[in-house]
Amino acid sequence: MTRRFLSIPLWQWLAMGGLTVLFMLVPQLDLAVSGLFFDGKRFIGNGTPAESFFYHSVGPVIGGVYGGALLLWLYNRFAHKDIARWSGRKLLYVLLVLGLGSGLVVNEVLKEHLGRARPARTVVYGGDKPFTPLFVPTEHPGYSCTSGHAAAAFSLLAFGFADRRRRKAWFVIALVYGAAVSLARVSAGGHFFSDVMGSLFIMYITAGALYRWMFGELRIKN
Known about the structure:
- It is a single chain.
- This protein is an all-alpha fold.
- Helices cover 62% and strands 2% of the residues.
- The protein has helices spanning 10-25, 28-35, 49-79, 88-113, 148-154, 157-162, 167-187, 193-215, and strands spanning 4-5, 8-9.
- It is globular.
């Protein structure tokens, strides 16, 4: 059995911590990744159909999935069914992951107080704001750290914890969709690579910690 802390394997904690420290100590990694999408004048993903689609998809997709969970809970409750074993506690859990992780930690705390400039606004890519590493506070206003869109997309990880029978499928869906939204934001100059990775880490940790608090340690046979 893999050792876990807050329902997350120890090796994943080490990987997330190591990558976070790496982004902070070697900020050139962010510049290198963003530079792949900058042609000298503009970010090549900005305004493309794919970028626009994934940017604007987050609200409807997240609203649809969470709304579907609410409707399923209501149906189970009033029809006295147990489809997918979707209980009120599970519904509360996934809503808390979205609200606390994406809404509170990412959008209200980090984005509002760190002040990291978006790539397209930094002097490196023709803007007027200084570039700062991940999680380093600055007095210059900016909302790059971390990505709100990526955090919302990665909030689907909560369904992987809640629906253990379909855990792997939900994790694949969350990671693929989150990666697509993240790529759209990075290619458009809206966020650095570490911004979207930071959102992934925050949402995964939030989902694991809340699951541990509400349901106990997640036990999976390896």
